[in-house]
Amino acid sequence: MSGLFSLLPEAVITVDADSKDIILDRLAGRFAAVYGLDHQAVLARITERERLGSTGFGRRIAIPHARMAGLTRPVAVFMRLASPVEFESADGMPVDLVFGLLSPEGAGATHLHALAAISRMMRDERMHEALLAAPGTEALYSLLSNVIDRDAA
User: Fold this and answer.
1) pLDDT per residue over 61-78, tens digit each?
2) Which terminus of the chain, N or C, has fewer Cβ atoms within 10 Å?
3) Which of 65, 111, 113, 128 is catalytic?
4) Is 65 annotated in the active site?
């Protein structure tokens, strides 16, 4: 989908969760189901990263991310939450959009470029509102893929 990371249609979901731990577990589960990764290994890596500081960067958005052995390129999962959840975000606001990113272990600059691209896209207030208003996962994927493909061109 993008030169920076893969986001498959089945990696875009709406989730009902009531805690940060459940969000991270569901995120790990989606990475496992879509990209064939080990659920517990993914959960351990994103939880380890989260302990360094919350990936809730503000404006009701979180971008949990980590590096993992066994990947050949960065992969992503997008989750729209059914209702906002406390995430220890920098601005104290609960999150309603979660964009997860896993990159290969040695992908220093590649990982940072992918994070920057996701951050730019998610900071756009019109995009945020469109993602919240989208009627389903197909519409969510369409919105995300159109922006990612446009920015990659």
Assistant:
1) 999 999 999 899 999 999
2) C
3) 65
4) yes
State how beta strands 65-68 and 75-85 pair.
Answer: unpaired
Measured distance CA(122)–CA(128) in Å, rounded: 6
Contact 73, 5 (CB under 8 A): yes
Per the listing, tokens 């906002």 go with 84
Tell me the pTM.
0.92
CA dihedral over 13, 14, 20, 21, signed as positive or negative: negative
- CA angle centred on 111, ends 130 and 113, rounded to 5°: 60
Phi, psi of 32 (to 5 degrees): -65, -50
Q: How far is CA 147 from the centre of its chain?
A: 15
